[in-house]
Design a protein that fits this description.
It is a single chain. By secondary structure, the chain is an all-alpha fold. Helices cover about 70% and strands about 0% of the residues. The protein contains eight helices and no strands. The chain has helices at about 1-25, 30-40, 45-60, 65-70, 75-85, 95-110, 115-120, 125-135. α5 (about 75-85) crosses α8. About 20% of the residues are buried.
Length: about 140
Amino acid sequence: SSGINAEYGKQWYQRRVREAVVSTQSTGDEATVVTWLSWLPIQEDDEESLHIYGFLLDLVESNNKYALGKNNANLPEIVKILTEGIINKTIKSDDHPELMSRIQAFILPLQKNEAVWSAILAKLPDTHKVLLSGQ
């Protein structure tokens, strides 16, 4: 029972922080952004996925230093989060065409830089590599 309560508490806390970050559209401080990123990808909650992944892209598109990490060290994790959202169907191309366009606009330049893309792919599971290769 304590495990159930702990899990419920974690879910409640995660939801509150997500709502705070998403509702304010704030770029947040380092601790908030890093903590928020650690909770991604979401595994369910289709209603919020558009806002959550959209906010992640807002952070990336604005070159948020906390989201991207030092020397863009978080790029592989961000690509993994976004592709996991597509794999687990919290991001659906039919339901979220604008979000899918933004994801493609983020990933395409990375794919064109061979050194960067190789470094990203090296850190991704095979299922994500298959999705990104279009096979």
